[in-house]
């Protein structure tokens, strides 16, 4: 029997707002509230409010918490200062990506690992399996948090209205404990939209009160509730990878052009970590003769590419595959991210097309990201 999707603490709020709900990674989540284009534009120009409570939180504590994470993940987690965060990945022994993660150091011996909803159980199981011999404890905190995000250029002004936390001193990829609208929260300057913004980790029981306070504080700034659909087009424009699309167990961080997250120079564990040998080989391949590279594609026409569509050259030979595609509200054209043969990956390469149901539509090859905010 199929299990019913889980519901976040804000489920009734979403339904009262008329959200179109969808099953996402076992959760019933808001896809959109009205026009996904309007929600997208609001985040780019004003601000959007998201419920991200489907994400998976795992807490690691103990004297060797950093050593465990340095061994289990590809990043140098021991080098993260308290109050800061790091984007990283967990890979299998063969180098394939099991998930991409954000790790927050919330104390001297405490870390919060945030996994994608679809992979949270896998990440929890892998961390548990890799914890042998380390003086560290792993706690499944997926039910302990609701996660709200305020994203967009007006987000600092909106959040300042409901907190006395030092937001001006809060750098990108940093987090600090504070109070927002009277609610205890971990306030993180992180996001998945390409805009300035904040993610707020709170108790599920406090989620509705916080949502209502942020909605009221953002009314004059043009804040709107936003669903997963516009979150996807926002991250696509910003060139941010999505697990199951740009990142899979069949790709390494180097295949995805994200080799920078792999830190071979770790000092803990003698520099050893799961997947090291395979990733050293992947790094060498990427340096000498990468088979394919991740690129951006901008349509010359109006037809929209989708994940799985072949990328072909002028002769119709398959040279790659689209991993993500959608219309871009910001650029006004369809966009795609794709893996293509290295010989066709340079920006400006001519003759590149996407096979859209048998029609070879011309596309311009560009470097990622498509969009970068002005700071």
In short:
The chain is 20% helix and 32% strand. It is an alpha+beta fold and 375 residues long.
Overview of this protein structure:
- The chain is of the alpha+beta class and 375 residues long.
- The chain has 3 domains: 6-53 and 145-237, Probable tRNA modification gtpase trme, domain 1 (Gyrase A, domain 2, 2-Layer Sandwich); 56-142 and 252-271, Aminomethyltransferase beta-barrel domains (Alpha-Beta Plaits), CATH 3.30.70; 292-366, Elongation Factor Tu (Ef-tu), domain 3, CATH 2.40.30.
- The chain is built from 8 helices and 20 strands.
- The strands form 4 sheets. It has a 6-stranded mixed beta sheet with strand order 11-12-13-10-4-14, with helices on both faces. A 6-stranded antiparallel β-barrel has the order 15-18-17-16-19-20.
Spatial arrangement of strands, main beta sheet: 11-12-13-10-4-14
Q: Which sheet architecture does the biggest sheet show?
A: 6 strands, mixed
What's the number of structural domains? 3
Secondary structure tally: strands: 20
Mean of all residue-level pLDDT scores: 97
Secondary-structure element series? EHEEHEEHEEEHEEHEEEHEHHEEEEEE
Number of helices: 8
CATH architecture of the largest domain, please? 2-Layer Sandwich
Portion of residues in beta strands equals: 25-35%
Q: Mind telling me the CATH superfamily name of the largest domain?
A: Probable tRNA modification gtpase trme, domain 1
């Amino acid at each position: 029997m199929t299990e019913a999707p889980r519901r976040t603490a804000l489920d009734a709020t979403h339904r009262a707002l008329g959200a179109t709900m969808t099953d996402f990674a076992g959760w019933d989540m808001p896809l959109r509230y009205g026009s996904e284009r309007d929600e997208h534009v609001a985040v780019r120009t004003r601000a959007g409010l998201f419920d991200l409570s489907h994400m998976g939180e795992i807490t690691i504590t103990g004297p060797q918490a950093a050593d465990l994470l340095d061994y289990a993940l590809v990043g140098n987690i021991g080098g993260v200062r308290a109050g800061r965060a790091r984007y990283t990945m967990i890979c299998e022994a063969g180098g394939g990506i099991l998930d991409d993660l954000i790790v927050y150091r919330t104390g001297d011996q405490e870390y919060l690992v945030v996994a994608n909803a679809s992979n949270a159980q896998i990440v929890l199981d892998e961390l548990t399996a890799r914890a042998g011999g380390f003086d560290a404890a792993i706690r499944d905190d997926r039910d302990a948090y609701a996660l709200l995000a305020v994203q967009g250029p007006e987000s600092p002004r909106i959040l300042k209205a409901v907190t006395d936390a030092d937001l001006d001193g809060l750098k990108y990829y940093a987090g600090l404990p504070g109070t927002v609208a009277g609610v205890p929260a971990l306030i993180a300057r992180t996001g998945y939209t390409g805009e300035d913004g904040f993610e707020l980790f709170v108790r599920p029981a406090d989620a509705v009160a916080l949502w209502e306070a942020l909605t009221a504080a953002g009314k004059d700034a043009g804040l709107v509730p936003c669903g997963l659909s516009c979150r996807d087009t926002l991250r696509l424009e910003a060139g941010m990878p999505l697990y199951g699309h740009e990142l899979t167990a069949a790709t390494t961080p180097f295949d995805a052009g994200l080799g920078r997250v792999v830190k071979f120079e770790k000092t803990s564990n003698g520099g050893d970590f799961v997947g090291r040998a395979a990733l050293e080989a992947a790094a060498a391949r990427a340096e000498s003769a990468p088979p394919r590279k991740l690129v951006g594609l901008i349509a010359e026409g109006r037809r929209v590419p989708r994940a799985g569509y072949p990328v072909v050259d002028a002769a119709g030979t398959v040279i790659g595959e689209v991993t993500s595609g959608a219309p871009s509200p910001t650029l006004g054209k369809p966009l795609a991210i794709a893996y293509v043969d290295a010989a066709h990956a340079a920006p400006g390469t001519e003759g590149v097309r996407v096979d859209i149901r048998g029609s070879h539509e011309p596309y311009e090859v560009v470097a990622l990201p498509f969009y970068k905010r002005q700071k």
